[in-house]
Structure formats: structure tokens, C-alpha cells
Amino acid sequence: MYDMKNLSRLKTIEANASEAMKAFWAFDKAALADGSVPVKYKELIACAVAFTTQCPYCIAIHSERAREAGASDRELAEVVTIAAALRAGAAITHGTHAFPDRP
């Protein structure tokens, strides 16, 4: 199901929703550009989000870009644990909704 070759199908979306896709690519480029937060950190953040959303395309793309920006295996491994902690934390805090207030 998840094959990087599928990304070639983005051309179909671009052909049929060109203005929206132009806006998306411009936004994506701007969001990940070097700024107050350096590119390496932005790509590590993108990795953490990708691990949390479990998007295999984003994991592949952003982990490669993070490495190109100088990220080490150690940094990527720590990002994996950050994503895991936040995902687990969300389960714990959402669990509070299972317990009604009691007088």
C-alpha cells in the first residue's frame, strides 16, 4: 500500500487542483525553510510529527532531510522517544474522560 512510487500520483492532484497544490507547496517550502528555527531542527520536528501520525512517506522524506541537514542517528532516536512519549501521554490524558466527576 505504501510505496514511494505512489507519490508520482501527486501529479494527478496537481493537474486537477493546481492552485491549491501550488499554495500547498509554497506553504510547505516556507514552513520548512531556515529561519529562527534552523532547518535541522525543523526536520527533526517534522520527523516527530511523522512518527506520531505514522505517515511512512513523511518518515522517509523528513528523516532523509534531517540527516542531510546534519542530524545524527542519536538525535533521530531521541526524536522517536519524544514522539512515543507524547503519543502515550495523549492516551493517558484522554483517559481522564472515561471517569466522570463524582460528588
Describe it.
The protein has 103 residues and is mainly alpha-helical. It has a domain at 35-91: AhpD-like. The protein contains 5 helices and no strands. Helix 1 packs across helix 2 (18-32). The longest helix has 23 residues, at 73-95. The radius of gyration is 18 Å and the shape is extended. The relative contact order is 0.10. The mean pLDDT is 96.
Report the total helices: 5
* Coarse morphology: extended
Order of helices and strands: HHHHH
What fraction strand?
Answer: under 5%
List unreliable stretches of 5+ residues. Answer: none
Average predicted local confidence, pLDDT: 96
Short description:
With 103 residues, this protein is mainly α. The chain has 5 helices and no strands.
Annotation keywords:
103 residues; single chain; AhpD-like
Task: Record the SSE blueprint.
Blueprint: H1 10-16, H2 18-32, H3 39-53, H4 56-68, H5 73-95
Helix pairs in contact: 1-2, 3-4, 3-5
